[in-house]
Write a structure and sequence with these properties.
The structure holds 2 protein chains of 2 kinds. Helices cover 39% and strands 17% of the residues of chain A. Chain A is built from 9 helices and 11 strands. Chain B is built from 7 helices and 15 strands. In chain B, helix 1 packs antiparallel against helix 2 and helix 5 crosses helix 6. The radius of gyration of chain B is 18 Å and the shape is globular. The relative contact order of chain B is 0.21. The chains are: A alpha+beta, B alpha+beta. The interface between A and B is large, with 36 and 40 residues.
């Protein structure tokens, strides 16, 4: 790992920001341009891995193509001893994760203002053929002026892009709290997959916690597939019904049942009076059948029946012995 | 009738690239079984991070015991191959040191030793992340004991059917186990390779241990995900039925995986059981020992290593 003051291909390392995926992310100074930049350098466990290389190439391609205040700008790339690295603009700000952890639940107007800006950036991506697929508060920075900036397009789906699988050493299941049911099912996803993540982030800002949580990432994934979303308007603090209905629409299990695109979601926010509140009836109601839980219940029932039968047989036997059989 | 163990290594031309070759090792335990290991870098990667090994692991009490294992290393260009090679070396050395013990106990302990050995190497060499899968089969009479961790697989091919004997320790594998994902979707799942368990990963290691009764004519396949990710179970059974020898079967598997554009290294061990002794006793074991046949000769996919090789 590089240390502050180290020189790296003409950049001066200022600090280690984070370890993301299988890369180290540094803040560095670029003397030629007199600016601070972000360097993303894969750690040695990703060297020679074609999947990692493709992720890098894709991120570079995406961030250099897109130009929007909500998207972190890619500035270029390089390689040292055949190890590729990315250069991106440095954004001063706090991550949405930090903000949620310290300040959520947000008042509905604040949450709405932030989600509108995030959704606008994502709609722009979709209009340019890019689906982010890994939207989460950790990947969104909020500047001092309140502008969200979306980072990390390493998993992005592009029109030409081939399928990327997660490497063996990637952290287990990433952040399953923001995964759409179709991602749990292993599908590539489409713009409505990002819409689902937007719905989860909106929910979390309003409620102070995501709708599905747990210690086991697989169990959280299972909840996305089988459990219905709790109603936001019945949470504490209760959000407006129209906002709750918009969130529920984003979080439908089948992509076809969600808003057709992110612009339609923004339009619904513009016209809360015309939101169909009937969709609230589908939330927090009867749970979809969860085969894992059902199996557990069946096992518990079978064990109970077995124990009861054994006790009954023992009682009959003792009675028989007592009566002199 | 004494069981005679012979080992032969061949370098075969690779289907993946005319400039590359694949290594094949055949261990014949005459007349009982033939085990063939085969490994190819494949078309997508610059190096082969898979390893395989096989050994006569008979103990001092005349029981015939054989040990086979494949490992798929990870840790990038520098450390993936190192991880799988070192793990197999430590695993086999540990097993052979105490090969007369109960199979389950010795398999478990050998996996633990390989795990801690890898962690020690990471610490001493300053390697940030490194690990490997391990799928090992110990055959003793009609009993096969499997030790498994990661997403390599063991298959039993019997009566024209291929049955996967292991459970993938990956995100997609866990989703299947929890019945969230249907098993047929695992090959195309984006998180198929994302491991939840592996040697060298995490604090402790808990390999799955299975025991299976094997029969004459059975074929056992141990393979890395470069093979099974592009070959369906049914195709595996068909390829076995169409191949007369285990070498032909192994070669067919590798060629098919290449044809299908497997993105990983491609490695498999095929074991064909000609006969199955009922008690696992080595016929003529005493004679073998009197004739001075060495036990514990190990053969690895890339380097031949005697059992008494010193640990790294």
């Amino acid at each position: 790992m590089l240390k502050p003051g180290d020189q790296f291909d003409g950049f001066e390392i200022r600090s280690h920001i984070a370890r993301g995926g299988m890369s180290d992310i540094y803040r560095a100074y670029e003397p030629a341009a007199r600016r601070d930049v972000v360097l993303k350098i894969p750690d040695s466990s990703g060297w020679g891995d074609p999947v990692q290389f493709e992720r890098f190439q894709r991120e570079l391609e995406v961030t250099q193509t897109l130009d929007h205040p909500t998207i972190q700008r890619g500035l270029g790339s390089g390689s040292v001893d055949h190890i590729p690295y990315l250069v991106a603009e440095y954004v001063e700000g706090r991550s949405l994760r930090e903000l949620i952890d310290s300040e959520a639940p947000f008042a509905p107007p604040r949450a709405e203002e932030l989600i509108r800006k995030i959704a606008d950036g994502i709609a722009y991506c979709h209009e340019h053929g890019v689906v982010h697929r890994d939207l989460k508060p950790e990947n969104i920075l909020i500047t001092a002026a309140g502008q969200p900036v979306i980072l990390d397009f390493g998993l992005a789906l592009t029109r030409k892009g081939r399928r990327i699988t997660y490497p063996k050493l990637s952290s287990i299941a990433g952040t399953p709290e923001y995964m759409a049911p179709e991602q749990v099912d292993g599908q590539r996803g489409d713009p409505r997959t990002d819409l689902y993540a937007i719905g989860i982030i909106f929910y979390e800002m309003l409620a102070g916690h995501p709708p599905f949580e747990g210690d086991n990432p697989m169990a959280v994934m299972g909840q996305h597939v089988f459990r219905s979303i709790p109603r936001l308007d019945r949470q504490e603090p209760a959000g407006p019904e129209s906002m709750a209905a918009i969130v529920i629409r984003c979080l439908q299990k089948k992509p076809d049942d969600r808003f057709p695109d992110v612009r339609a979601f923004l339009e619904a926010l513009d016209h809360p009076e015309s939101v169909d509140l009937a969709i609230l009836q589908t939330a927090g109601g009867k749970e979809a059948a969860d085969p894992y839980l059902r199996n557990q219940v069946l096992v518990a029932l079978a064990i109970s029946l077995g124990v009861l039968s054994a006790v009954a047989l023992l009682a009959i036997f003792l009675q028989w012995v007592h009566t002199g059989g | 009738m004494g069981a005679k163990v012979t080992l032969r290594t061949e370098v075969l031309p690779s289907t993946g690239s005319p400039h590359r070759s694949m290594v094949s090792t055949t261990m014949t335990v005459s007349p009982l079984m033939v085990g063939v290991g085969i490994s190819d870098t494949g078309t997508q990667r610059g190096d082969n991070q898979d390893s395989y090994r096989m050994a006569d692991a008979s103990g001092g009490d005349s029981r015939l015991r054989t040990l086979f294992a494949v490992a798929d290393g990870m840790g990038g260009l520098l450390h993936g191959r190192f991880a799988s090679t070192v793990a197999l070396q430590l695993f086999f050395e540990s097993f052979l040191r105490d090969s007369s013990s109960n199979a389950e106990r010795v398999l478990r302990r050998s996996a633990e030793e390989a795990h801690f050995g890898l962690q020690q190497a990471m610490q001493q060499l300053g390697i940030p992340r490194m690990g490997t899968t391990l799928t090992a089969a110990c055959l003793e009479g009609s009993r096969m004991s499997l030790a498994h961790i990661g997403d390599s697989r063991a298959y039993l091919i019997r009566s024209g059917r291929a049955e996967c004997l292991t459970h993938d320790h990956s995100t997609a594998g866990e989703l299947v186990r929890m019945r969230i994902l249907s098993p047929e979707k695992i090959r195309g799942h984006a998180r198929r390779s994302e491991l939840t368990k592996g040697l060298g990963l995490g604090l402790f290691v808990q390999p799955d241990i299975h025991h299976i009764t094997v029969c004459e004519g059975d074929r056992i396949v141990l393979c890395t995900d470069g093979v099974w990710s592009v070959i369906e179970d049914e195709e595996l059974a068909n390829a076995s039925a169409a191949s007369e020898s285990p070498l032909e079967f192994g070669r067919t598997l590798v060629d098919l995986a290449m044809e299908r554009g497997s993105e990983d290294n491609v490695s498999a061990i095929v074991i064909h059981l000609n006969q199955v002794p009922t008690e696992g006793r080595r016929a003529g074991g005493l004679l073998d020992r009197l004739l001075g046949r060495k036990r514990g000769a190990v053969h690895a996919g890339r380097t031949r290593t005697p059992a008494d090789t010193r640990m790294l």
